[in-house]
Amino acid sequence: MMNRFVLSACLVLMFGLSASAGAEQAKVVSVNQFVEHPALDSVLRGFQEQLREEGFQVEYRVHNAQANMATANLIAQQIVGERPDLVLAIATPSAQAMAQTVKKNPSMQKTPILFSAVTDPLGAGLVKDLQNPGENITGTSDLTPMDQHLALIREFHPELTSLGVIYNSGEANSRALVDLLKAETVKAGIKLEEATVARSSDVFQSARSLVGRTQAVYVPTDNTVVSAFEALAKVCQDNKLPLYAADVDSVPRGAVAALGFDYYEHGRQAGAMAGRIFRGADPATTPVETQQELELHINLPAAEAMGVTIPQALLDRAGKILE
Predict the structure, then answer these.
(1) Which member of 149, 159, 180, 244 has the lowest number of beta carbons within 10 Å of its beta carbon?
(2) Could you tell me if 207 and 235 are in contact, meaning their C-beta atoms sit under 8 angstroms apart?
């Protein structure tokens, strides 16, 4: 019955089959990923490769909710039955689903839950203290430095007076980011135009609602919008509306530029935390970690299609330029 809802069946992968295989029982890691898109997929890949490089044998049971909160909750319940050694919850909705399910299942209250790609662990109710989580849940946060993102867009557009943002107001991570963006645009004297979506299929029409109202569009690390990024990019290209993103994985998909985290490295950071927990670290006293390094990626064809002239100073600073 459960398999009808879990849209991505369990994938069982074995890593680290060294000469010591059999000497130590493989760890079981259950994964609750909210949706498939390049950034979140990179998190999982980095997590797996970090543990493989550290020599752990791991049996993965990977589930994907396909951006459906109800499915994320059902996956969380299924994971209880899997009795894993550790749970990796990728993105805020999946982490919240795991946290709520654990509270109702005493058998899971000592199982480490690691979250990754979560913007605001405090606001999402995952932990009460970033330095001392206090229970069995900790992880890595991708809180966006919104002041730097807005500053980047203004380097491309010094005369910017209006900026559009498109997001799913049902995602706690997105609400937190848009609140930060509002504060920054107010300080800069820029009018913020909001467009919201409930599903990935809404992205195209919502993007069209911004045409004529804004000079550029910004996308935070919103899972619903990023999963349908190409639809948004098409609207922006058709209307020469410059598009900027918070994650560098969205640049090859049509954004002019992004100053963002490397989500593969973000996943490796979570993998290193898992390694320490497997060696005996207590999640309750393992602080939530953030990634500090940002890299600028620029997409030249997208810039040309959207009528953007790129200042030489930005080209000189870019870590990656797509031609």
Answers:
(1) 159
(2) yes
Whether the CB-CB separation of 15 and 73 falls below 8 Å is answered with: no
> Strands of 58-64's sheet, edge to edge?
58-64, 27-33, 86-90, 113-118, 137-141, 289-290
Indicate the pTM of the whole model: 0.75
Neighbouring-strand partners of residue 245 = 219, 258
Using CA atoms of 139, 153, 190, 290 in order, give the dihedral in degrees to the nearest 10.
10
Q: Say how many C-beta atoms besides its own lie within 10 A of residue 245's C-beta.
A: 31
Q: Which one, of 108, 113, 101, 118, lies nearest residue 138 by Cα?
A: 113
- The tens place of each residue's pLDDT in the chain, 323 residues long, gives 344 444 444 444 444 444 344 446 899 999 999 998 888 999 999 999 999 999 999 999 999 999 899 999 999 999 999 999 999 999 999 999 999 999 999 889 899 999 999 988 998 999 999 999 989 999 999 888 899 999 999 999 999 999 999 999 988 888 989 999 999 999 999 999 999 999 999 999 999 999 999 999 999 989 899 999 999 999 999 999 999 999 898 999 999 999 987 889 999 999 999 999 999 999 999 999 987 778 999 999 999 999 999 999 999 999 999 99
**Dihedral class, residue 248 (left if φ above 0, else alpha if ψ from -120 to 50, else beta):** alpha
Contact between residue 101 and residue 77 where contact means Cβ atoms under 8 Å apart: yes
Mode of pairing for the β-strands spanning 257-261 and 295-299:
antiparallel
Query: Residue 234 and residue 228: Cα distance in Å, rounded?
Result: 11
Rounded distance between C-alpha atoms, residue 120 and residue 29, angstroms:
24
